[in-house]
Amino acid sequence: MATLNQIICNKRKAKIKRVRTLALEQAPQKKGVCLRIFIQTPRKPNSALRKVARIKLSNKKLISAYIPGEGHNLQQHSNVLIRGGRVKDLPGMKYKIIRGKYDFAGLPYRKKRRSKYGTAKNQQK
User: Fold this and answer.
1) Predicted confidence (pLDDT) per residue in 96-111, tens digit
2) What is the DSSP letter of 104?
3) Does the structural domain 22-120 have CATH classification 3.90.105.10?
C-alpha cells in the first residue's frame, strides 16, 4: 500500500493496454481486397500447408490473413472481411478472414460451429 506522500509525489499511472491488431484501428472488422493467395508452413513442431492471403485493407494497410476451414474459393481481387485473432503456429499471422461474407463462401454441410464457418441452418440437410 502506497503512503499519502508517495501518491502526492508520484501519481498513479493507468496500465497501458497493448493493441495487438493495429491494422483494424480499434474496429471489430475491416474490409479488404485479396492481392495474393499462397500457402505457408507452420513453426517447428507442426507440419502442414496453411492457406494464407495477402490483403489490402480499406485503410490502405497491407496485412497477411489466415484462411480458415477446409477449402476456399478466394482468388486475386476477392473482397473479404477480416477480424482479429492470431494463428499460433504461423509467425506474424494476427488476422483471420470471416467466412460467408462478400466473396468468401461459407462451408456447406457443416453441422457444428456453423457460425465460425458461415454455414446457414438450412444447408445442413
Assistant:
1) 999 999 999 999 888 9
2) B
3) no
The verdict on pTM exceeding 0.90 is no
Q: Are 82 and 97 in contact (CB under 8 A)?
A: yes
Distance of CA 44 to the CA centre of its chain: 22
Written as nine digits, the cell of 120 is 446457414
Contacts of 83 by beta carbon, 8 Å cutoff, 6+ apart: 24, 28, 29, 95, 96, 98
Residue that the C-alpha cell 444447408 belongs to: 123
- For residue 96, count CB atoms less than 10 angstroms from its CB and return exposed for 0-12, middle for 13-18, buried for 19 or more: middle
Domain boundaries, the chain: 22-120
